Amino acid sequence: MVEWKISDGLTDYDTALAAMEARADAIAKGEEDELIWLVEHPPLYTAGTSAKIEDLVQPDRFPVYNTRRGGQYTYHGPGQRVAYAMLDLNKRGRDVRKFVHDMETWVIAALAEFNIKGEIREGRVGVWVERDDKPLTVTGKKAEDKVAAIGLRIRKWVSFHGLSINVEPDLSHFDGIVPCGITEYGVTSLVDLGLPVTMDDVDIALRRAFDDVFGDAPDPQ
Length: 221
Fold this sequence. Notes:
Elements: E1 2-6, H1 13-28, E2 34-39, E3 44-47, E4 64-66, E5 73-76, E6 80-86, H2 89-92, H3 96-112, E7 119-121, E8 124-131, E9 143-155, E10 158-166, E11 186-187, H4 199-214
Parallel strand pairs: 1-2, 3-4, 9-11
Antiparallel strand pairs: 2-6, 3-5, 6-10, 7-8, 8-9, 9-10
Helix pairs in contact: 3-4
């Protein structure tokens, strides 16, 4: 059984990290159920295990947290839905590549509820959207922006950290980093794409899509 939890307001990042680690350990011991935890954070940057210091363009703009999740620098802040996934891969198959793909598929399925075509790109973790409203690239291809980021850590075959979907964050806050180390592409949000979507709308879509990708889950509490 997977528990769902939605936290109101802005969740302190250190508090979230401590809670995730404790829950992941309890899941590994068989003491707690799996958990999907939906939060928003105050503005901050996080550095994954592959982060390069030169990609932290404005180190004094927001607090910076060094994490042990995979990936590089990313931003969290108000208007962004962060979904922390504490799932037991002992029960779901010890296949990290498939699990990352399933996380991407989860986001894509949720975005499809708003008629957004999210896509995966080889060598670029996360979910991307083509922009028909922007000029073609220098190579003649459609412009692409990132709408969702994924960064995971797996310990004792239990996952934590997770994904973030840009609903209506201040996109200028991404200027303080090179998001995920990628300079050739931009960042977008659901509202920037012209969708008047609320956080509640996204939560409902995530719940339904999770059931389709990972199996049944109880109603959020």
